[in-house]
Amino acid sequence: MNRFKQASLITVAALLITVSACDQPELTLDEVGRAKQGSYPIRTEHLKSDGTPLFTNRLIRESSPYLLQHAHNPVNWWAWSDEAFKAAKELDKPILLSIGYSTCHWCHVMERESFENMEIANYINEHFIAIKVDREEHPDIDETYLTAVQMLSGKVGWPLTVGLTPEADAFFGGTYFAPEQFLVLLEKITQTWGNDRPAINEQAGRLKKSLAKLSQAANTVKSIDTDAIDRAEQAIAQTLFAPPRHNQPGFPREPEMLFLMHRAILNNDTSLLNSLTQRLLTLSEGGIHDQVGGGFHRYSVDAEWQIPHFEKMLYNQAQLGHLYALASQYTNDPRLITLSKSTLQFVLDELANSEKTGFYSAMDAESGGTEGGYYLWSYQELSTQLSTTELKLAEVVFGVTKQGNFNGANVLRFKPDVASTELQQTKALLSKLAAIRSQRTAPKTDTKIITAWNAMTVSALVAGYRSHNITNYLDRATAVAEQIWASAYSDQDGLFRTITADSYKIPAALDDYAYAANAFIDLYDTSKQSFWLDRAEAIIKRMTLEFHDSNTGAFLISNKTNGKGLSVALITARDDALYSGNSMAAQSLVKLFNRTGDIEYRDLARGLLAHFSTKIISSPESTSGLWLAASSLNVGETGSVLYSARSKVRVESSQNNDQLNINISIAPGWHINANEVLSEFLIPTSLNTLKGSCATIQSVTYPKYHTVELGFQAEPLQVYEQTTNLTATLANNDHYESCAASAFELRIQACSDEVCLSPEIVPIRTAPH
After folding, report:
1. Is pLDDT of 85 > 60?
2. What region holds the Thiol:disulfide interchange protein DsbD N-terminal domain (predicted)?
């Protein structure tokens, strides 16, 4: 958002506050529209002779770019509010709920065809209370009615179209409707509402009961042990790597890949790592990857990722940036290194706000009213803009043809089997194409700064820093996290969903809390600054207060202390394009337990996993985030920083060619036994190679121990205290070049002056290359 737009919104907010404070009449809709003029695009075709909008509805008072897109429809839209439901009850009208987001192509299509259509708009205004919801602002409302429509029709997507009673109970649902079909549907609903209300109430009642069942306490609890985790991994991998069906859309499916990447590293599974890296490379070669400007589109209309739906979402860039960072770290593949850096750089260059303290949510699928117009290349345009040699190169490297592959134009796709000489010329060609494309009308950017998605991006940038040692990644991650803490959280109000320039605040959803805590933990691990851990704990404690359901042990998706009028308090853990709130809550709770030793966090994680145990065992592919939490809890985390002995021991590891370095930090008042002990009953510190490791330990240099006398032991002890370092000389194994990870186990026993904890094994996994 440029400074003019920010100033406009701030001015409007200040004006509204001033008017309210003076008890003067509220600004009319037209007055609000004039005050906001220039701060949002006007999309309507209904204009006065002076070019100003003919219609202005209540959405003009909102800040959401999506709602403002509809502020000048002839439909008398309401935002989701108590007032809208009160009006429905007083007027005895059904509610037409439309849920979408600002960069959604089919949302734009339905707006142009139906919500700008005077006949349809007049019918809606006469017979319905029409409510618009930005799914990115209210993911809990979206998830509730998405689940309801899934139960009704089995088909979901956006725009989501739902019929509600004035009590907010769904009785009908669908997605996009063509205008003729939509008007017939509205007429049927009106007829049934007037002539057969009991049928609608019966349908709504049945659906409400079905939704409520999802949130009931589990009847049975199944064991989530290491065998169950292994079986889940196999099932998720089998589904992910199965041959695609050609009539299905192609989604990246980052949540499953993140879980499997964790397992590949943890188990030193070279085969699984190779399958993941090949999938990531294939993904980058398709049209779903913007070959010219970087970044990834949300999904493709085909299973092979060739022809995308063209919106670019922050959460896709964050998750894929994270995956490419991990893959490049553990393979040292130059292609993956380039993709990791280019994806993160796209976020920093194209989605950052001017202050560099937040990231915008998305870029539109349309530009100039045409789907994908910014990204498409006609053969005629290329033949006039490029030299003969360059055009031939575009044909060979990017599959350009005269007939094109999308509405007569070309979506560029990278062909990996081209000669090395042609690859060397590709960089100059891409630079020229980027210069040509910069003259086009760029897609609109949704300038919402969403807490959960920004926190997710913080974690991705931290992963990028760990992989590439680029300090700018860590600096930018820190700045965004600081902004989340300063502007989106307060002790009084808790966390907010969006970070805005004005006073418009939306209470956070469950995923905002869970992702924010996870990001703060990542920064704590990397910076060693304890205030990040303190902030993560504050976030999780507030999340538990406002979302935890003691009857089930899981978390509600909507805040129980300031309900939004939803008739059902829903509990779900279905991972879709990103991990669900419950999945991320479980992961953050496990991490907090490992870093604080507070068993309350462990018990909350166990209770959450127990509630969903039957579901995740029966449907592992849709709950990979909970399986990641279970693996971290029962087997161990992965990463260069790990915790042991109820958080009293911090272990940081790195591999530099043939040397393994391990730094052990021990809490004050605690020690671990040295590598040599004076009693057979004590467990010495030891470092060993695991089977299948990329490198084998040849020798270990242990530090000099301290001799201490403790109250519970008559004889002196040889121990390590405070900070100590181990180094090991390594020899590469035969399969080193194709190996996933160097795998070692550090065995320690931690004691204080009063108690010795059970011996523990810390799983050390380092990138071998």
Report:
1. yes
2. 646-760
Confidence tier at 714 by pLDDT (50, 70, 90):
low
Residue 671 CB partners (closer than 8 Å, separation 6+):
706, 708, 717, 719, 720, 721, 750, 751, 752
Rounded to an integer, what distance in angstroms lies between the CA atom of residue 571 and that of residue 549?
9
Distance spanning both ends of the chain, measured CA to CA = 42
- From the list 154, 224, 207, 220, the residue with the least C-alpha distance to 570 is 207
Query: DSSP states of 235-259 as a string?
Result: HHHHHHTSPPPTTS-B---HHHHHH
Please tell me the chain's helix, strand, coil percentages from 3-state DSSP, rounded to the nearest 5: 45, 15, 35
pLDDT for 661 beyond 80: yes
Examine the pLDDT at 408 and tell me if it is beyond 90: yes
7 confidence band (pLDDT: 50, 70, 90): very low
Task: Please state the φ and ψ torsions of residue 710, each to the nearest 5 degrees.
Answer: -120, 160
Please state, in angstroms and as integers, the Cα–Cα distance from residue 396 to each residue in 8, 97, 346, 420, 433, following that order: 49, 48, 26, 12, 15
Confidence check: pLDDT of 22 > 60: no
Please give the share of the chain, as a percent, with pLDDT higher than 70. 95
Q: Domain 226-364+446-634 belongs to what topology?
A: Glycosyltransferase (1.50.10)
The torsion of the CA quartet 202, 206, 211, 215, rounded to 10 degrees, works out to 120
Burial 300-312 (b: 16+ CB within 10 A, else e): bebebbbbbbbbb
The rounded distance, in Å, linking the Cα atoms of 692 and 707 is: 37
Mean predicted confidence (pLDDT) in 709-734? 84
Phi/psi of residue 525, nearest 5 degrees: -60, -40
Which string of b and e fits 38-63 if b means at least 16 CB within 10 Å? ebbeebbeeeeeeeebebbbbbbbbb
Report which of 80, 43, 76, 39 is spatially closest to residue 57, judged by C-alpha positions: 76
Please state, in angstroms and as integers, the Cα–Cα distance from residue 267 to each residue in 72, 258, 648, 690, 764, following that order.
56, 14, 25, 10, 11
pLDDT at 618: 95
Sign of the torsion angle spanned by Cα atoms 185, 212, 606, 589: positive
Q: pLDDT grade, residue 464 (50/70/90)?
A: very high
**pLDDT tier, 14 (very low <50, low <70, confident <90, very high otherwise):** very low
What is the rounded average pLDDT of the residues 526-547?
Answer: 97
Q: Is the pLDDT of residue 1 over 80?
A: no
Amino acid at 527: S
- The residue type of 753 is D
Q: Give the residues across from 548 on adjacent strands.
A: 555
Domain 40-213 has CATH 3.40.50.2300: no
Written as one string, the DSSP assignment of 617-646 is: HH-GGG-HHHHHHHHHHHT---SSEEEETT
Please state the three-class secondary structure of 294-339 as a single string.
CCECCEECCCCCCCEECCEEHHHHHHHHHHHHHHHHHHCCHHHHHH
Q: Where are the domains of the chain?
A: 40-213, 226-364+446-634, 375-439, 641-766
Name the CATH superfamily for 641-766: Thiol:disulfide interchange protein DsbD, N-terminal domain (2.60.40.1250)
Q: Say which amino acid occupies 147.
A: T
Three-class SS state of 109: helix
**Strand partners for 651:** 642, 664
pTM over 0.90? The answer is: yes
Question: What is the mean predicted confidence (pLDDT) over 65-78?
Answer: 97
Tokens of 227: 């065998």
